[in-house]
Each structure stands twice: as structure tokens, then as C-alpha cells.
Amino acid sequence: MQTNEMIKSNIEQGLTTLGIEFGSTRIKAVLINTDHEPIAVGAYDWENSLIDGIWTYSEEEIWAGLQGCYKNLVEEVKAKYGVTITKLAGLGFSAMMHGYLAFDEKDTLLVPFRTWRNNITGQASQKLIKLFNYNVPQRFSIAHLYQAILNNEEHVDKIKFFTTLAGFVHWKLSGEKVLGIGDASGMFPIDINTKDYNEKMLADFDAHIADKNYPWSIREILPKVLVAGENAGYLTAEGAKLLDPTGTLQAGTPMCPPEGDAGTGMVATNTVTKRTGNVSAGTSVFAMIVLERDLSKVYEELDMVTTPAGDLVAMAHSNNCTTDLNSWISLFHECLTSFGVKVDANELFSTLYNKALEGDADCGGLLAYCYHSGEHITGFTEGRPLFVRKSDSKFNLANFIRVHLSTALGAMKTGLDILTKEENVTIEQILGHGGLFKTKGVGQTIMANAIGAPVTVMETAGEGGAWGIALLADYMNNKGNLSLDEYLSTKVFKNSVAETIAPTKEGIEGFETFMTRYRNGLAIEQSAIDNLK
Length: 533
What we know:
The chain has 533 residues and is α/β, with parallel strands linked by helices.
């Protein structure tokens, strides 16, 4: 670990690397030293707005957020080390994947930014799945473009370029219309052999819309695809002023390909190697598994994207995870308060989570659904949180907490079962991060038994995607002959502190018994939706 004097020297010499990620509620900047350690953090809170039925962020909010985040970082560097950032060794941007930002020949935004959160492209998604024989979720940028075509929106024939949020910010700071392959895979399907957009699908799409006579082809308006380690341009003078309006930051910093938050999450958790994956579990939960080969057919339950190096990834994404469990724990807190008992919220969570480990492996016959919202993996457009039991179920506190922890993984497990049971995909290790794993050992144990593979939690996993994109910028400058997974394993995570929990035979069998009950009970969930309007 570097001393403050060493870090100060790194900053003064321009040897530090900066990563900035635009999340859905927070923009975060992480500055790393030459040992890959985060040495300063900046943040800016923001929220999307629902305008005319579209979830969006304005251009003004994007730049205000970027500048506010960077300013906050600069202030922390000044306070901690007594120096000012004037130059950087590398720079990278990451953001929420997918969505739609379309521009005309004058680089004017044609319609407000349509984020991944919008569920307005169902018609386009289904038509593209049939056209490509490939899963195209509603979030994908091509689904947004095609829906605009189906809607006969006036702006479509004026499009000269469209991209993601990360691609937009990178373009404005570097002048380069490029995108990292992981983010690009959420715009349009990728051919993992060529590390570029799928040529046949590009041609199929152009042929499919030929009657519209647009003055562009799909290839012409998509950003160029780059893989991890490639140079994606340099910070221009205009870009430096856009990031740092004070004019202190110098231009010329090399920039890595802009990436999506899924890819930077894989980098930050060292899960870019085949047969590995990561699970992010909090309000929602998703698993990303790096595959060794293409799947045999299309599964709408699984999104196909790539690592920043271009390896194929299957994503099982569930909208619902810990929200309902948090509500139950709040109820317990209210009960205790009613008796005059004061208990720390963190202590209550920890105590109840650990109680779950005393429960039966199959949750004692209890059943719950945490569906606050719809769940596409199991086929629901709406949700109703439910708790159900038979009269002879083992109804006690341990099983009650355990069933709510288990059901938080139920929809995601349904998607992963397609990989492991139908496609015979081998998962050797999962790295977990997010709120579910905050109580040591509990979420890991439930997850390991659900997946049937060891689950590891690292101390650095909490640094997130801003650290991940900073690492990608450093990799660009210092990769040598190393692949991305070799660089991460030997340079970044070699001495990382981690704890791994392996599944048990009893735990796996118990979770499978619970999942049988979960699948059989989906009709109860549907009945609740039908009858509780």
C-alpha cells in the first residue's frame, strides 16, 4: 500500500488514472494510483425524470452531473493530499447500458435520451427476435431504434449517429464515435469471432427496413466497436474544459473504450474468465456467466452480452430481490419499537439473516414471492408480494427469514437453470456483491446452494464500476502482452482479501426442493395478480 507521500507524487506527476461511471442514481469517480488502489472518490447524486411517458435525463443534467462529480473528486484530492490534479495517465467512462441517444448531422440530440428503464419497445423486441433468431430485450438500443421506426417517428430519417450514455460522454470528450464491445453488445448483437457487430444481422436489418428509404444503413450510424486494451482517443481541449470548467486539467490524456456498467462490474470483481461469473444482489439481482460457446437456441430469459474483452456472457436478470425482505425486517423493527426495545438497524439485519442459517435447507415447506414488480423470467408483467404456507409447514423464524432470502434468488435461479441444466454450462465460481452479501456468510451460503458453485465475496467488490473502468484505462496503458483476465489476476487481484463459501449436498438438495415448490406455486402468484387489482 502506498504512503500519502507516494500518492501525492503519483498525482503531481500525472501517473494516476481516473474512471467515472454514470449509475441510475449516482455518478461516481474513482482515482487510482500506480498500484491500482482507489485513492480518492467523487460522487454526484441524480435521478431520472418521467417526461411524456419516457424515463430520461436531460443533456444539462448529464454535464452538470459529470462536472459536479469531478469537482467533488478534486476537492477530496486537495483535502487528503494537498495537491491539485492537472494531468492524468488514463481516463475511462462507463454508464448504464442500452437506451437510445440519437443525433443529426449537426450533432444535435433528436429526441430526449431514452434510458434502459423504458418498457416501450415490446413490439420491436418481439419482431427483432424473430428476424435475428436472437434474444433482443426491450432495453437494447436497436429495439429502441426499431420501435421509433415502427412508430413512424419523424426524427428517424435525420439520424447520423446513435449511441449509449457512455458512448455519448466519451464522444464529446474525445471526438471519437466508439464503444467498448461490452456496451456495444447491448446496442446490437455481436459476433464473438470477429469482435464486431454481427454482419448477417446488420444486413438483415437493412433489408427489413429497405422500404422506408432512410438515407443511412445501420452500420453507418452505430459507434465503432473496440475491445479492452485498445486506445479509444485522447481527451481534447474542449473535452478537458467540459470535464473541468476551471481549465486546470490538461488535454491529451489517453482514453480507453467507454463501457457499460455490466462490463465494468465484471472487471471490478475479476470475473471475466470463462466458467466464472458474478452476481449483483440488492434491490434487483442479476447473474453474469462467461460462456465457453454459443447457446444452442434463443432463450428470452437470458440476455446475451460480452465481457470488455469480447467473450460471450449470458445474463439472468431479475427485477426483484431484497425489497420484500427489507419490508418484513422493517415490520420486526416496528414490533420491537412498540415494546420499547431500541435496536440498531444493522444489528437487526445481521441477527435475522444469521437466524436463517438455523432453518431447514428447503425452508420447512414455506413459500414466498418477492414480486413487487413484474418478473420477465417467470412471465409476469405485474407483481404481488406473497407469503404462503401449509398447515403442517415448519413455520418458525429461521425458516421464515430463510424462505425470503431464498425466494429473492428464485427468478434468477430459473434463468441460471437454463444454462446449467439445459445447456450444460459449467460454473466453477461466482463472485457476489451487493446488499444481500453485507451480513457475512449468510447471502453467500444461500447463493452457493442456489447455484451449486462456490461463492466468493471480496473486500474490493464494493468499489464498483467506476473502479472497473479505471482499471480498464490502466490496462490500456500497461497491458504489455497480458490478456485482460491475466492482467486482473496477476496485477490487480493477486493479493486481494476474499472469503469463499462452497455449497453443501444438503444445501443444494434443499434449495432444489424449494424451487420445485416455487415453480408449482407460480399459479398462486398469478391468481393474486388477477384478483388483487
